[in-house]
Every structure is written in structure tokens, then in C-alpha cells.
């Protein structure tokens, strides 16, 4: 035979010991993607699953705050990184490796390096599921992960507002194009129920995500109301899913439906 060996193909990245990888994406920022990721992780852990949470939202990593951790992960040998533990979840955030006050200005290859580190050098241990909180939109991180990591499914979070839905459609389209199985849509900030009088207000509209899910042929996994406790708990680093409020029960239900 003439010529050298064929170049070895880089196989899909999946940390050893991790059974499945699920990504949580959104078309836009601010729709609750990180809130859903952390609460889903906590709800799964409460159900006895071994759960990892990787915050890959390089432009706005919010998991350290939402999960209540701020320590820089240790790397005793300078090669492997020891993830942190919070609320029964093994977690790692790109934000823990950067100066929180500095903006991220990374080119593609640096991003790829960071992602590869997060998946390959972090000692995830044995996990039933690793949840990856993606940056919003359809950029480099999503593309790299979809192409290079062995993803088992994607969840797309949207509010019922038209502008958010428009972008959610693009996110779904991206996952379909890249052949990442879509588990479904989560409608967040669905309605607001006044805690004093019980009146229900459709602040961002109503029914949009359900009809979008039908139109795109993907399941509607949950409809989560606007809930003050969810916001307060997220800000305090103790996800609402740790408790047993209606919001916590909604997350428990979402978690149960995802992993049979
Ligand atoms: P994203 O990850 O899409 O940018 P976040 O999860 O950071 O969005 O949420 C944006 C803000 O909205 C946060 O302050 C969060 O606490 C709040 N939030 C998210 N979901 C809800 C909800 N269902 N009810 C009330 N506040 C919410």
C-alpha cells in the first residue's frame, strides 16, 4: 500500500464512566436555561441518580452561583481536574476557571480546548447522567459539542414569548441538523400565579411553546410557571428543586420522565 496510515478519527468524546450526556439549550439568553439545568440536576440527584452538571455557558456561566459554589477546582497533578460537589451533584463550570469579572473573548480553537478539558480532564467519576448547560443560541460551543461529544439528547428551554420561540426554533433546527436527538421543549415562565389572590397572568403569552412543539414534532416536557421562590433559590445557590414546593414537584416530574 502506498501512503501512510489513515489519520485516526477523533471519536465522539464521552468521559469514561458517564452513561449519558444530555444538553440543555435555548435560543435566547435569560429564558431560564441555567435554572432548568441546575434544578433538573438536583431533582435527578434526589431520585438517587448519580448526576454531573457541566456549565458550558462560557459567556455567562451562572452555575457556580446557582449551585452555591465558588471554589476553584483542584488539580493535584496539573492534568486532571477534581470537580466540585454541591447538593448531591458533581459539578464543574468554565466560570470557575476564569476571572469572573473579565469578558470572554475566545477564538474557536481555545473554546475547543476548554471544552475538551471539561469533558476529558475533569474526573467525573461514575455518572448516570451528565447535564451540560449550553450557552444560548447556536454558536461554536453547541456545534463543537454536537459534533465531538457523544450526546444522548437535547432539551430546549423557551418562554412562550414570540421572540424567544423564534430562536428556540433555530436551536431545535440546529440539533436536528447535527443529528442530536431532541428530547423536547420546556416552557419556562409559563404563567404567573399571584400568591395572594391566586389570579393567573400570562405575562409572556400562553400556549406558544405547546403549539411550537406540535408544529415541530417534538414533545413538550414541562410548563414551569414564573415563581418567586425559583428565582430567590437560584440566587441563593440552593435550587428550588431541593424543597417540595409545587415548582420542586414539577422538576421532580420532569426528571422522572427523562430517565426511565
Ligand atoms: P438563562 O440560563 O436562559 O440565561 P437563567 O436560568 O439564568 O436564564 O434565568 C434568568 C433569570 O430568571 C434568573 O434570575 C432566574 O433566577 C430567573 N428565572 C428563571 N426561571 C424562572 C422562573 N420559572 N420563575 C422565576 N424566575 C425565573
Summarize the structure.
The protein is α/β, with parallel strands linked by helices. The protein contains 8 helices and 9 strands. The protein has a single domain (18-258), classed as P-loop containing nucleotide triphosphate hydrolases (Rossmann fold, 3-Layer(aba) Sandwich), CATH 3.40.50.
Structure commentary:
- In the C-terminal section; belongs to the Mrp/NBP35 ATP-binding proteins family. Belongs to the Mrp/NBP35 ATP-binding proteins family.
- The chain is an alpha/beta fold.
- It has a single domain (18-258), classed as P-loop containing nucleotide triphosphate hydrolases (Rossmann fold), CATH 3.40.50.
- 34% of the residues lie in helices and 22% in strands.
- Strands 1, 2, 3, 4, 5, 6, 7, 8 and 9 form a 9-stranded mixed sheet that branches.
- The longest helix has 16 residues, at 162-177.
- 46% of the residues are buried.
- Adenosine-5'-diphosphate (ADP) binds at residues 26, 29-35, 62, 136, 188-189, 224, 226-227, 230-231, 234.
Amino acid at each position: 500500500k502506498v501512503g501512510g496510515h489513515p489519520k485516526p478519527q477523533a471519536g465522539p468524546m464521552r468521559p469514561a464512566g458517564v452513561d449519558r450526556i444530555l444538553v440543555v439549550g435555548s435560543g435566547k439568553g435569560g429564558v431560564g436555561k441555567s435554572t432548568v439545568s441546575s434544578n433538573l440536576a438536583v431533582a435527578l440527584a434526589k431520585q438517587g441518580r448519580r448526576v454531573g452538571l457541566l456549565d458550558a455557558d462560557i459567556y455567562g456561566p451562572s452555575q457556580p452561583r446557582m449551585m452555591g459554589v465558588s471554589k476553584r477546582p483542584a488539580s493535584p497533578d496539573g492534568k486532571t481536574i477534581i470537580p466540585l460537589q454541591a447538593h448531591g451533584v458533581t459539578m464543574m463550570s468554565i466560570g470557575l476557571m476564569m476571572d469572573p469579572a473579565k469578558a470572554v473573548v475566545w477564538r474557536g480553537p481555545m473554546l475547543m480546548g476548554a471544552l475538551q478539558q471539561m469533558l476529558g480532564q475533569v474526573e467525573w467519576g461514575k455518572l448516570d447522567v451528565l447535564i451540560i448547560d449550553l450557552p444560548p443560541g447556536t454558536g461554536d460551543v453547541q456545534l463543537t459539542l454536537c459534533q465531538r461529544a457523544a450526546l444522548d439528547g437535547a432539551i430546549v428551554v423557551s418562554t412562550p414569548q414570540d421572540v424567544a420561540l423564534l430562536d428556540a426554533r433555530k436551536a431545535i433546527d440546529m440539533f436536528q441538523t447535527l443529528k442530536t436527538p431532541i428530547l423536547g421543549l420546556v416552557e419556562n415562565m409559563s404563567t404567573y400565579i399571584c400568591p395572594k389572590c391566586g389570579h393567573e397572568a400570562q405575562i409572556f403569552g400562553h400556549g406558544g411553546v405547546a403549539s411550537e412543539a406540535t408544529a415541530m414534532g417534538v414533545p413538550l416536557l414541562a410548563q414551569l410557571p414564573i415563581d418567586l421562590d425559583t428565582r430567590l433559590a437560584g440566587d441563593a445557590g440552593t435550587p428550588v428543586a431541593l424543597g417540595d414546593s409545587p415548582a420542586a414537584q414539577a422538576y421532580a416530574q420532569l426528571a422522572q420522565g427523562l430517565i426511565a
